[in-house]
Amino acid sequence: MRDLNETSVTDAVLEQMAGTPDERLREVMASLVRHLHDFARDVRLTPQEWLQAIGFLTQVGQACTPARQEFILLSDVLGLSALVNLMHDKTAIEQGTESSLLGPFYRQDAPDLALGETIAAKAPGHEFLVYGRVTDLHGKALPNASVQVWQTDEDGVYDLQKGRGETMDMRGNFRCDAAGRFHFRTVKPLGYLIPMDGPVGKLVHSQHRHGYRPAHIHFLVGAPGYRELVTALYLADDEHIETDTVFGVSNALVTSPRDEDPQAPMKGIPAIHYDFRLGIAAADEAGRVGADPSQIVAAH
Amino acid sequence: MRDLNETSVTDAVLEQMAGTPDERLREVMASLVRHLHDFARDVRLTPQEWLQAIGFLTQVGQACTPARQEFILLSDVLGLSALVNLMHDKTAIEQGTESSLLGPFYRQDAPDLALGETIAAKAPGHEFLVYGRVTDLHGKALPNASVQVWQTDEDGVYDLQKGRGETMDMRGNFRCDAAGRFHFRTVKPLGYLIPMDGPVGKLVHSQHRHGYRPAHIHFLVGAPGYRELVTALYLADDEHIETDTVFGVSNALVTSPRDEDPQAPMKGIPAIHYDFRLGIAAADEAGRVGADPSQIVAAH
Prior knowledge:
- The structure is a homodimer.
- By secondary structure, chain A is α/β, with parallel strands linked by helices.
- Helix content of chain A is about 25%, strand content about 20%.
- Chain A has helices at about 10-15, 25-45, 45-60, 70-75, 80-90, 200-205, 295-300; strands at about 125-135, 145-150, 170-175, 180-185, 190-195, 210-215, 215-220, 230-235, 255, 270-275, 275-280.
- In chain A, strands 3-2-7-8-9 form a five-stranded mixed beta sheet, with no helix packed on it.
């Protein structure tokens, strides 16, 4: 029998995991163990700190509900979600519109709406129009493309954050017309603090970070044979546009409503014009960096 | 505004965390983010795998109860608990008896027992005696030292794993006599599968690991002014003595009951003789690699 020391314990773990039949699981877990142990050695993690980490992760897990995904939030504030998203973008055969984070507030059961309808069923606010086209990289229209939209209301709150998440508002699923065009009305979203009442919020607070995301509208855009696009449009006038707590903003996604837009399909309200370009999909491609929280909790 | 790429996103996260007022938190989180991102880049973590990880961690958190600590179990099977323990040992001013893992089944509310009593209040089994002395490194007795003991029954089950954890058995807190001596009776523990019905068990199963810990008796030994000793005695005849799933065994902690022991304070039953040596404690020293699960869940 060998006695383990702080270096050889890593080899012992890798040895025990070496028989993993799934090659990818073996590779991922071996790398995870190496990096996890390197981290613990680099900082000389103490038993007390280890116990704090155990307590923290337990709290994060127990804060997850069908309406709240605290582990996605943790991944977001550590920049891991943005990193996975950026790596995923590089795997595209063709690079379409820049992607952004799905975030923890996507819902699969949003209502289907007709073009021109408003997603603000209940919430009041400064109305504006969003319109554009969904095309391939060469500008060819993708008829009947699916455009799912969700955002906060003018108070910076998602429906899922109200009560027990039984409210449904500020979301809608649209179908483009035969020319790949969509338009819908909404009210101006407000940038918002990530949920600060849970363990992740406490961490962000203890790091003296402001905790805000700049105002944005989420989009999930899809058409058969094309790579699903997870993105968001950010409003240029938000004070946190350069310091997003979850690292989701990129220049190409920053926009502003224009008061006068002769091209707009509805007049008399400000309009954002944005066209989405979808690359073609790889054969076995899958993956949104995010998910409906109810699907994650329900899965176990 | 800068557009982030898969390298610069790490710097952006570190920048946002740079204002953390607690120096140690800043150091630990910066290292964590670097290693976490390196891991994700090394394996080219995909959105699908990321989502599996989110789901897995959520399940681990939700499997935690006042009677079960699934995150400690995860730390154990990844060798992190053993590593933190080994590093902690090296911080000792004086190195006493080798330490081992506290594990997830320690309870603060175990009964106080008199020397010579059995910890097997209910469980049947092959009885034997455990006796010895608690001393400093030079063999000086530590009178009234505290010896807390817990183990599985002969079926390899902890009391906390029965029903909803309302059973109390196979544990006891003893006080040494004026010469630092202790003795108590117990029944032979059985090695056991770590809890395989949760997400960590599923992971271990998918890695084709046997999942067993060799039979052992946990000890938490303390005396004022001395470093608290968290350790365990392992039974030599266990078939998994060399392949502990949580990497807790070391040679010096492997023992066997002897049928004839003229030194033993009680005759007619097999006896294990083991003396514990405690080093002196550093001034601000704290830390067991483990905790009573009810204290972790209760804390949030």
